[in-house]
Amino acid sequence: MHMMIDLVLDTNILIYALNYDSVNYNSAITFFLNPNYKLFITSKNISEFFGVTSKLKIPYSSSLTFYKELKNNLTVLFPSEKSLLILETLIQQYQPKGNQVYDIEIVSIMMANNIKYVATFNQKDFKNIHEIQILDI
After folding, report:
1. N or C: less crowded end of the chain, CB within 10 Å?
2. Which residues pair with 40 in a beta bridge?
3. What is the CATH number of the domain that holds 34?
4. Is residue 119 exposed (0-12), middle (13-18) or buried (19+ Cβ within 10 Å)?
């Protein structure tokens, strides 16, 4: 019997899973098809997802349809007082710059929910954060 792994999907996994033409489409989809993963995203990933898809000029009808399907197949995690305290500690510890703050916020929400694993195509975003582990793609 396999142990279920709690896994947060980074926003780039969602973007590639939406785009059939992407070279990373098949890799992104495997996370959704693997029965050993219990999938999570954070509310931060949702706002990033719509920000990126609108910049890429993906029609809202497509991104909204994908998002609604996504929400039925995973759990959305929200910031809490606990994650905010963790965020403050991580900001002091890692002193992130610019967009790195968003990745640190995702990590704080993961930690508040006792989730250790993240899947991402941008491993550099998380590689120096020792509290979590990046799942190999």
Report:
1. N
2. 8, 75
3. 3.40.50.1010
4. buried
Residue 42: partners with Cβ closer than 8 Å, 6 or more residues away: 8, 76, 77, 78, 79, 105, 106, 109, 110
Question: Is there a domain that residue 38 lies in?
Answer: yes
Hey, what amino acid is at 18? L
Is 91 part of a structural domain of the chain? no
Alpha carbon 17 to its chain centroid, in Å, reads 12
Q: Is residue 34 part of a domain?
A: yes
Report the domain count for the chain: 1
What are the pLDDT digits (tens) for 71-116? 999 999 999 999 999 999 999 999 999 989 999 999 999 999 999 9
Q: Is the pLDDT of residue 137 over 90?
A: no
Read off the pLDDT of each residue in 128-132 and give the average, rounded to a whole number. 94
Residue 100 lies in a domain: no
Of 25, 36, 15, nearest in space to 117 by CA: 36
Distances (CA, A) of 116 to 18, 40, 59, 134: 25, 12, 33, 8
Identify the domain containing residue 59 by its residue range: 5-78+116-134
Question: Does residue 119 contact residue 137 with C-beta atoms inside 8 Å?
Answer: yes
